[in-house]
């Protein structure tokens, strides 16, 4: 149940700030409200849902403060994951990254970009063996999904910067240059945060 609702939230079938009616969810999946409540509690722990005793469950809203915190956490943790992953990346994974980047450069659809970009980053991290890092980073990728969508909708004209940063990452991976790869990745994530925060109209009031 949690996975199905998570998919709906990440795909924006349930939008930020939208109420989740437990009875409707239970009817949709042909279950009682008990697994729905359990799933919602799991999603609340992951930062995707807000549970209110007075009004039920709501998809978490987008706020500037939450955006800043989530991205700053990613800026610190993902370079650790990348450094842990790089020594174990295979030639097949490097080739896959190059294929994904070519697909990103050929694409102009927001939802497809989100899928390809996520696949690109997570392929870079496939060599990571620290499960706790993987779990935490996965949580913050989910939490920032709506922000990533908003960023992508600002315009594909910014895509050349993403492409350039991805290409720099690919070269550092090929060279086995952990320091450069981490530096580029920090800048890549940070730039998204700063660009989003320059557009206050994207956020709900805090």
Please give a structural write-up.
The structure is a single chain. The longest helix is centred in the middle third of the chain and has 22 residues, at 64-85. The protein contains ten helices and three strands; from the N terminus they run αβααββααααααα. Strand 2 and strand 3 (56-59) form a beta hairpin. It is globular, with a radius of gyration of 18 Å. The mean pLDDT is 95. It has a three-stranded antiparallel beta sheet with strand order 1-3-2. Helix 4 (64-85) runs antiparallel to helix 7. 69% of the residues lie in helices and 5% in strands. By secondary structure, the protein is mainly α.
Keywords:
3 strands; 206 residues; 10 helices; three-stranded antiparallel sheet; mainly alpha
Topology:
Blueprint: H1 2-10, E1 19-20, H2 22-29, H3 33-45, E2 49-52, E3 56-59, H4 64-85, H5 91-106, H6 110-124, H7 131-143, H8 145-153, H9 159-175, H10 178-197
Antiparallel strand pairs: 1-3, 2-3
Helix pairs in contact: 1-3, 2-3, 4-7, 4-10, 5-6, 5-9, 6-8, 9-10
Main-sheet strand order equals 1-3-2
Radius of gyration: 18 Å
Main pleated sheet: 3 strands, antiparallel
> What is the end-to-end distance?
29 Å
């Amino acid at each position: 149940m949690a996975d199905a609702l998570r998919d709906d939230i990440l795909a924006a079938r349930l939008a930020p700030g939208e109420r989740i009616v437990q009875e409707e969810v239970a009817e949709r999946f042909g279950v009682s409200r008990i697994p729905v409540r359990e799933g919602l509690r799991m999603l609340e722990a992951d930062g995707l849902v807000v549970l209110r005793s007075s009004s039920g469950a709501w998809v978490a809203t987008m706020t500037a403060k939450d955006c800043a915190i989530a991205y700053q956490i990613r800026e610190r943790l993902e370079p650790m994951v990348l450094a842990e992953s790089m020594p174990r990346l295979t030639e097949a994974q490097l080739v896959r990254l190059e294929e994904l980047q070519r697909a990103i450069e050929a694409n102009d659809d927001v939802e497809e970009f989100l899928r390809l970009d996520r696949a690109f980053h997570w392929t870079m991290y496939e060599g990571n063996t620290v499960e706790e890092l993987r779990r935490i980073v996965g949580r913050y990728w989910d939490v920032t999904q709506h922000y990533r969508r908003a960023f992508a909708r600002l315009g594909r004209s910014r895509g050349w910067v993403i492409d350039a940063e991805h290409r720099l990452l690919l070269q550092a991976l090929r060279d086995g240059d952990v320091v450069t790869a981490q530096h580029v990745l920090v800048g890549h994530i940070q730039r998204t945060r700063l660009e989003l925060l320059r557009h206050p109209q994207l956020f709900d009031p805090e």
